[in-house]
Amino acid sequence: MKKINILGIGNALVDKQFLIDDSFLKDISIEKGTMGLCESNYQEELFKKLSKHYKKSKDACGGSATNTIFAACSLGSSCGFIGKVAKDTNGKFYKEDLDRIGIQNNIIGEGKESTGTCLIMISPDAERTMSTCLGISANLNFSDIDQNLLANSEIIYLEGYLVSSDPCFETSKKIIETGRDRKAKISVSLSDPNIVKAFKNRLKNWMTEPIDYLFCNFEEAKAFCESDDLEKIKNSLLSVAKNIFITDGSNGAYVITTSFTKKINGFPAEAIDTNGAGDMFAGGVLNLISKKRTIEEATMFGCFLASKGVEIIGPRLKQTDYLKYYEKFLKID
């Protein structure tokens, strides 16, 4: 039996969050609900504009895969993470956070670039819009990676954002190949509709052989399949993945396998911030899958956990809350 249940691969980013008005997005010409990549100069100017008009919440270690792994680790899974930070204040903050919660990590700190950051702008309707400067996280190379982490992992989870940089894309392909050679299950998140539209061929390149688990929301699924018809989406995605999870906001999620398709209802929530909800969903699902629970139960718990996540500001719950909500979930009839 391998020592690591779930290994996350992703961009290591420090999140800086602001509660904004919709008018601000119009002023800066960013499409609401999406993630845009930018250079450091633009990020610095945008940060100044945000800081001038809005109060920033406490910084958080983010990145899609990290948020997923944080959830799974907090629920009791043995977890690891591979990413890249710089030897700067943000990088130190990031590594200390992973170490604190017991996530085994391969965080490399060589290079001139700064640690990546993500400016998260949360609208009054709880929708999140992101501006991301990848920084040094975009330069993850296969030679950087601790091979023991790959060798000892049952499930390898990759965020779709990795395809946006050449080094990360090439490294990810090798990680998938190595993982398969070592009998690991491969899991991928499509991450964002804009990423899917811009890098669909790269995402498909990850899945020339069907992966084990695919996570996406409806907008990402529609962009990937170039259709809004559920049956066409289902057939298209089953050509690249064995088990598929499509989230649909407060409506819940669809779980699709080669054997069945099932709609899992959502749970009531007073949403104030949807940032990280999909990541939390994936963390809950993968945790129960690693515990050999049924895929339907795992999907239901993912929906329940995400419903709690949207009721707080930020992409994560308090670490102690994950198990607390799992206990509550077990009592649901």
How would you characterize this protein structure?
This protein has 333 residues and is an alpha/beta fold. The chain has a single domain, classed as Ribokinase (UDP-N-acetylmuramoyl-L-alanine:D-glutamate ligase, 3-Layer(aba) Sandwich). Helix content is 41%, strand content 24%. It contains 12 helices and 14 strands. β5 (79-84), α4 and β6 form a beta-alpha-beta unit. α3 packs across α10, α7 packs across α8 and α10 (277-290) runs antiparallel to α11 (295-309).
Radius of gyration: 18 Å
Percentage of residues in DSSP E strands: 15-25%
Q: Give the % helix.
A: 40-55%
CATH class: Alpha Beta
What CATH calls the topology is UDP-N-acetylmuramoyl-L-alanine:D-glutamate ligase
Helix and strand topology:
Elements: E1 4-9, E2 13-19, H1 22-28, E3 35-37, H2 40-53, E4 60-62, H3 64-74, E5 79-84, H4 89-100, E6 104-108, E7 116-122, E8 128-133, H5 147-151, E9 153-159, H6 166-181, E10 185-189, H7 193-206, E11 211-217, H8 218-225, H9 230-237, E12 241-247, E13 252-257, E14 261-265, H10 277-290, H11 295-309, H12 319-330
Helix pairs in contact: 3-10, 7-8, 10-11, 11-12
